[in-house]
C-alpha cells in the first residue's frame, strides 16, 4: 500500500477517498499493486482503472446501463441489497475491479471464483414467467460490455482525451480476460467490437418501469455528510451525460446541454484535485 502524502490537505483527501472504497469495519485495506498481477504495470487497463473520478462516473453509468437488461435487472431486484446499501454494492464492485486489475494473480483468481459462486445462486423468474440466471453468458456479456465501455468513455472524457486507438483496443483486450473468467460470452476485444456489440444487443434491452425506478434510485442522493451529498449529484449528472442517447431515453432521464457544461467542469475539477492528492498525473 502506498504511503500517505505528507501534505496535510492531500493526506486528508486520500484518507477520505480510501474510507469510501474500503470497509474499515471489516478491516479492509486498499489493494496493494502487485508485480505478479494479471496485468503488467503501465498497461491500459491499469492506467484506466487508476483514476478515481473517472471510475466513479463510469461505474454509475455502467450500473444504469446494466439495468436495461431485464435479466440483469431482475437479478438485482431479487438478490441484491442495493436499495438499502447502494454504496456497499458500488464499493464491492470497485474492490473487485481493483483486486483483478492490481492484486496478486492468486488473489484475483480467488475474487473471480467468489463472484462465480455468487452468480450460481442468482436465479429466478421474470414477471412474465421466463427463467433467468446470473450464469447466462449473454447476460454476463452485457454486464461486462456496460462496464468496459463506461469506464473507458469516462477515462477518455475526463482524463486522457487523446488516448490512442491502439491503447483503447488493448484496454478491451485486457479487460476481456477477466470477463472470460466470469464466463461472459461474447466478449469484445477491441473498441470496434464493443461498439458493434452495443448496437447488436439493444434489441434485448427494455426501458421498463422497474428499470426507470431503479435508475431514479441510483441517482438519488443518499447518506450523510455535506460533502457526500454535494458530490453525488455531480457524479450522477456526469454519469447520465456519459450514457449513449438511447439509454438516456429508455431510462426516462434528461440530458440538458446547458446543465452538462457545469457538470463536466465540476467533474474535471474533482478529477484534477484527486490526481493532485494521490500524486498521479494525466497521461496525454
UniProtKB/TrEMBL annotation:
Protein name: DUF2236 domain-containing protein
PANTHER family associated with the record: BLR2777 PROTEIN, ER-BOUND OXYGENASE MPAB_MPAB'_RUBBER OXYGENASE CATALYTIC DOMAIN-CONTAINING PROTEIN
GO molecular function: oxidoreductase activity
Alphabetical list of Pfam families matching this protein: MPAB_Lcp_cat
InterPro entries assigned to the protein according to its UniProt record, in alphabetical order: MPAB/Lcp_cat_dom (IPR018713)
Domain ER-bound oxygenase mpaB/mpaB'/Rubber oxygenase catalytic: 48-265
Origin: domain of life: Bacteria
Amino acid at each position: 500500500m502506498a504511503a500517505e502524502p505528507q501534505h496535510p490537505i492531500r493526506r486528508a483527501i486520500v484518507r477520505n477517498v480510501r474510507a469510501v472504497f474500503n470497509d474499515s469495519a471489516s478491516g479492509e485495506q486498499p489493494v496493494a499493486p502487485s508485480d505478479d498481477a494479471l496485468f503488467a504495470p503501465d498497461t491500459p487497463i491499469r492506467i484506466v482503472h487508476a483514476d478515481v473520478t473517472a471510475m466513479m462516473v463510469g461505474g454509475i453509468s455502467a450500473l444504469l446501463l446494466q439495468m436495461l437488461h431485464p435479466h440483469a435487472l431482475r437479478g438485482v431486484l431479487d438478490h441484491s441489497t442495493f436499495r438499502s446499501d447502494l454504496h456497499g454494492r458500488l464499493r464491492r464492485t470497485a474492490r473487485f475491479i481493483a483486486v483483478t486489475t492490481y492484486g496478486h494473480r492468486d488473489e484475483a483468481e480467488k475474487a473471480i471464483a467468489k463472484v462465480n459462486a455468487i452468480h450460481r445462486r442468482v436465479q429466478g423468474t421474470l414477471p412474465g414467467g421466463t427463467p433467468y440466471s446470473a450464469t447466462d453468458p449473454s447476460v454476463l456479456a452485457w454486464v461486462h460490455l456496460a462496464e468496459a465501455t463506461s469506464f473507458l468513455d469516462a477515462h477518455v472524457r475526463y482524463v486522457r482525451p487523446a488516448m490512442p486507438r491502439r491503447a483503447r483496443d488493448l484496454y478491451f483486450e485486457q479487460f476481456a480476460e477477466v470477463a472470460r473468467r466470469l464466463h461472459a460470452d461474447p466478449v469484445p476485444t477491441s473498441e470496434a467490437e464493443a461498439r458493434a456489440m452495443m448496437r447488436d444487443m439493444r434489441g434485448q434491452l427494455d426501458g421498463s418501469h422497474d428499470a426507470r425506478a431503479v435508475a431514479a434510485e441510483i441517482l438519488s442522493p443518499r447518506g450523510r455528510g455535506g460533502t457526500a451529498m454535494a458530490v453525488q449529484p455531480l457524479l450522477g449528472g456526469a454519469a447520465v451525460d456519459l450514457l449513449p442517447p438511447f439509454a438516456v431515453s429508455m431510462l426516462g432521464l434528461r440530458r440538458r446541454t446547458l446543465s452538462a457544461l457545469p457538470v463536466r467542469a465540476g467533474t474535471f475539477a474533482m478529477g484534477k484535485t484527486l490526481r493532485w492528492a494521490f500524486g498521479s498525473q494525466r497521461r496525454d
